C-alpha cells in the first residue's frame, strides 16, 4: 500500500500518514522501547529494523502531499534524534547496507557518526560503502577516537584491515594522546598489533606505560 494522503497536517500523527505496513514498524513490540523514547521518525525506525521496502515507501513522495513542515521533517533523510542519531547512523549500527545505500541515494549526508557506528559494530560492508561515498576515514568522536582506534578497541580485525587498506591514519592520537597502536596494546589485541606493525606504525615509548607489542605478539 502507498502512503496515505494527509488532510490535517498540523494535527496528524505518524499513524495517520503511513500505510498499514509502516504502522507495523512503529508498534512497540517490534522495536526497542528505547528508540520510541528517543522520538524516532518512521524513516529512522525502518532504517533501524532494516526494512528497505518500507523505507523506500517513505522516501517516495508520490503518496504524500508534503505541504507542512512537520511531515517534511519526519520524511527528511537527515533528520536526527535529540541525541543526534540519524536514520543512516541507525542503519549503519545494525549493518543494514541495503538501507544505508537507499538513504545515500536519496541525499543523506555521510557523517562521521554513521561511519563510527558501523566500525564499532564490525559491519565492514557498511564501512566500505560509507568510505566510498566520502566519509572521513579519520573523523573522530567526542573522545577523539578515529575509526581505526575504535575498531581496535572493539576487536574487529576485518574492519581494522579494511581501514588500514584505505589508508587510515595510524599516527593520529585521541584525547588521551593514544595512537591506534597504543590502543591495540591496551586492548591486548595481537592481531591488530601485527596489522599495525606491518604498516610501520611507530610506538612512542615516552608515552604512558603500556604492554610492549613484542611481548604480546610472542605470547610471553
TrEMBL record:
SMART domains: ANK. GO terms for cellular component: cytoplasm. It comes from the Eukaryota. ANK repeats lie at residues 83-115, 110-142, 143-175. InterPro entries: Ankyrin_rpt (IPR002110), Ankyrin_rpt-contain_sf (IPR036770). Keywords: ANK repeat, Repeat. The keyword Thylakoid does not apply. It holds the Pfam family Ank_2. This is Uncharacterized protein. It comes from Haptolina ericina.
